[in-house]
Amino acid sequence: MEALKYFRAILVLPFMVTVVIPWIITYKTGAMNVGWSLAPPFNAGPPLWAVVLICIGLVLMIKTITLFATIGKGTLAPWDPTQELVVHGVYRFLRNPMISGVLCVLLGEAVLFGSMPLFYWFVFFLTVNFIYTPLFEEPSLERRFGEDYILYKKNVPRWIPRLNPWKNPHDDEAATSD
How far apart are CA 64 and CA 35, in angstroms? Predict the structure, then answer.
């Protein structure tokens, strides 16, 4: 039963955004231009960059889902949020690796298929998150996790990663009190 709640959250959220909607857009518009009509060997460039972006995105998404399940004791879904603040792993570099991962996948798909409609979907999703995250998600996290989240928010950027991992000062306190 536990696995079902994770599967449902993944199916409804990142799978819908990165697979179902792009498939519908591509199907409805027929907009596909792999290689961007460039001459060989230049036509290999866009697909290679696209694969890199998609792989980075998938790694971020998988790491996020795993951390939410193991440390956060919840899912990425608003209807079943984490019970614990997750500030480990990839979260030491950026506050919202799931959205960063989804954005990488969406941009990678637009580049792979040379599709302006997919690029517009990427821009739309980015815009919605630029509005939603600071106005709704972050205030909710501040209410749920208080000073711990505020300290984390001051030290870790939202979507573009830090170069070095943030060290949570509470980790040192926990280690010395054991």
Answer: 31
**78 burial level (CB within 10 Å; 0-12, 13-18, 19+):** exposed
The CATH number that applies at residue 56 is 1.20.120.1630
| Tens place of pLDDT per residue across the chain (178 aa) | 677 766 777 767 899 999 999 999 999 998 888 877 878 888 888 899 999 999 999 999 999 989 988 898 887 777 777 899 999 999 999 999 999 999 999 999 999 999 999 999 999 999 999 999 999 999 999 999 999 999 999 999 998 899 999 998 877 654 444 4
pTM (two decimals):
0.88
Tell me the two tokens of residue 24: 């519908």
Instruction: Give how many domains the chain has, as a whole number.
Output: 1
